[in-house]
Amino acid sequence: MNRLPSPEAVLFDLDGTLFQTETLLETVHRRVFDTLRSERLYLAETPPIDKLLGSLGMLLTDIWQRVMPDASPAAQERANVLLLQYELEELALGRGSLYPGVRETLDTLRARGIRLFIASNGLEAYVKGVPQVKGIAELFEGTYSAGEFGTASKVELVRRLLDTFGVRSAWMVGDRSSDVEAGKSNGLSVIGCDYAGFGREGELDGADAVIRTFPELLSLLPE
């Protein structure tokens, strides 16, 4: 694997990059649709969880359009509320895992003087809650979410983060095409994560490198 120029900072997506989202969402997904049915807001069958997993990385409004396009705006709005509520409840119960080697790899990057950030299209309480509960929050200088800043795209979110923290050279690390676009549009090197298993064909086209385990990230640093 070709090594890349050493970055001043590394920006990470959260779901499918640092956090094994399906380990949390299997339970959350079922609970959301059980509740929507009990409240008579959505009476169709529960959509396959793969539909939700395949939509991760999108903005929430776009996720529900894809997962339940036939639902009313009220049902989609309620699904937003329930998704966050149940994610936080399940996290507090200890559900959900980081990918193998995440903590150790982040520690090594920090030891090399590299600044670490999270940039995610998720809701603020979730994007800040996962690192907190999993014991890695203190490793990040900033945690930015579309939910907090109301950004219309990941390109905009990453630009805002770079400007705020005065970052000049960075890597963008993520598993979705939105991460590739956000990195490239902001002049960053992009590392695609090909281990989550719910990306589409060609999802990481345009990335400068693709890794198949999280610790492989270190092999891209100059010696």
Return the average pLDDT rounded to an integer: 95
Instruction: Please work out how many helical segments DSSP would assign.
Output: 9
CATH-scheme architecture of the largest domain: 3-Layer(aba) Sandwich
Class per helix and strand makeup: alpha/beta
Helix-strand pattern, N to C?
Answer: EEHHHHEHEHEHHEHEE
In the residues, how many domains can be counted? 2
Rg (CA only): 17 Å
Task: Give a verbal description of the structure.
The structure is a single chain. This protein has 223 residues and is an alpha/beta fold. It folds into 2 domains: 9-20 and 98-220, Rossmann fold, CATH 3.40.50; 22-92. Helix content is 43%, strand content 14%. It has 9 helices and 8 strands. The protein has helices at residues 22-38, 49-53, 60-67, 73-92, 102-111, 124-133, 146-149, 154-165, 177-185, and strands spanning 9-12, 19-20, 97-98, 115-120, 142-145, 170-174, 189-193, 209-211. Helix 6 links the parallel strand 4 (115-120) and strand 5. Helix 1 (22-38) crosses helix 4, helix 4 (73-92) runs parallel beside helix 6 and helix 8 packs across helix 9.
